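Bumping with the actual sequence this time:
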Amino acid sequence: MTAALAPAKPRKFPTQKWSNWYLTALKLAVGLLLVLLILLLWLLRQNEAEEQRSTLIADVLWLEQILSFRLDGNAEQLKQLALVLSQEKNRNALFRVHTQHLIKNSPELQQILWLDSSAHLLDSMPTQNLPRLGSGGPGDDEKADTKALTKPETRADTPADMQSRAIELASKLGKPVYTDVYQSSGSPQFEVFFPLFENGHFHGSLVGVYSLNTLLKQLVPWWFTEKYQVRILDANGNTLASKSRVSEATTTLSYAVPFDPPGFGMAIQVTAYRSSGNIAQTLITSLIIALAAAVLVSLWVMRGHIQRRLVAEQALRSEYAFRKAMEDSLTVGMRARDLEGRVTYTNPAFCQMVGFSAEELIGARPPMPYWAPEELENTQAIHQAVIEGKAPREGFEIRLMRKDGSRFDALIYEAPLIDADGQHTGWMASIVDVTARKQVEEMARQQQEKLQLTSRLITMGEMASALAHELNQPLAAITSYNTGCLNKLESGDFNSRELKDALGKLGVQAQRAGSIIRRVHDFVRKSEPKLAPCDLAEVIDDSIGFIDAVARSLNVRIVRVIQGMRPELMADGVMIEQVLLNLMRNGIEAMSDTAPENRCLTIKLSQIDKHMQISVADRGPGIPPEVQEKLFTPFFSTKAEGMGIGLNICRSIIEFHHGRLWVEDNPEGGSIFVITLPITRP
């Protein structure tokens, strides 16, 4: 059973249509926010890319200037050396001094050569011969070198061709000339030729041999390679030399400028690495997009949740209206109290029952205004038992008072009040006004007593002749003994002993007659049921004493079987005797068509577990199953002159004693009526 506090006014909830518009606006706002965030991040990425490109171009131009400045510086020093060699006389010494200094300060210069006008090697620094363009390698004589320089291979792009063209071009132009890059021992190199003139005539060349790898190694600083990958490309885009922190760059952001000198289509290309800042920015961007997507998903989920909630609220309102209508239509009063006993809810039926309004009852504390003053102590004790959780589950009756002062009887069932979290918050009572019912029950009880009395009178009426015969025997004996005593007294021939014996027998017969009259009087008089210790064997004997004369007149033999112990139980002996008389009389009448030698009525008393069992077995024709089902129904009888109340009264008496009465077939023929009564030990 569930209940709530005093009903409050129902709240107004948003409609489904308004909720859909509201959720749609929220989704549009979040979607627009997501688009703006993506646009902003894209603009930031573009600005950052543009800034990075500008920085890259500036750094590439700076590097190109550094390389050009170094090459120009070296060229200037070689030019000065060429002038010195054209004018001074101690040329060999000056060549070595100047070239040692130049190579020391410019490690990218692998070797400086001094050639005459026929391209014969005059001197070099370092003195060991490096692999030369078109040369046969170190150790070859000057003739071989001259031959290699003056007689190039037939291919136009051979190293010898490049050297010959450079010497010829330098002698004609009178200025330095660079060669294209060539591979020497797996290392990319190029040369610069400076013409030597004396008195206006060409008489030799000064050659500087550069290594591209060493050039990049010496002139590209370490911090530059932390940011970029530097490569020198030929005219076909092939990499001639490179310097980088890793083998490959991870972005396509690059910039190239011509590498001139030396020229020949060579270029310096710088490619930017993907910086950690870019990764962080990408991660932040991804997180923002994921967060926005999560917001959209959450809104979608919330939409479903709100829709389900609206449906649940609508169902709750419908359920509340249904329960309210149901509670208002109940004739059973409902009252809720908290753990302190304060009234928290009443339904209209209870208010009408006690005459107080809900406003007068809500919040009331004990003693309640509907408690009867004369029952205050008992009511307070019951209230405390309920608060302590000791209320009987089968309910309890109590007398209450209406507002006008009238009293009424109420049957109350108390149950724990559990909230949605499973917590015990109070007690819910169902209250039924049983005043009318008790009046009906009292009238029914009185009618039942009248029926029982009527049944007993009918039984006595039917047994009147037998009882008269029973009384005639002791009365006749009394008359005989009295006459004999008078005769003895008149004759004078007597002794006191004879008179004493006769008078004693006369008293016994008088007591016998008085016992018969007492039993009849106790059986037929109207009285309230009295539960007292009762010996069922004595009740059976008294019943047999009543019915024995009738049984003898119909040639019925009564067999009495008492088994085992005979514990006393709490019962009304007269009522049990009435039941036994009714059952035995029915059994005797059922054997009217049975052969006289088979007319036997067996009364058996036994103990089964915690019950005493009495069985009344006859040897009549038995009772059909369809009749057994209706046998204990009021006003149902198998006798033409029967009223149909005897067996119904018998069952009512046994049920009053918390026992059972039923019928079953007798295996030897006939029927057995079985009674079980619970044993009440002292």
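The tokens above came from a reply further down the thread. Confidence is low (pLDDT under 50) at residues 1-14, 130-156, 640-644.
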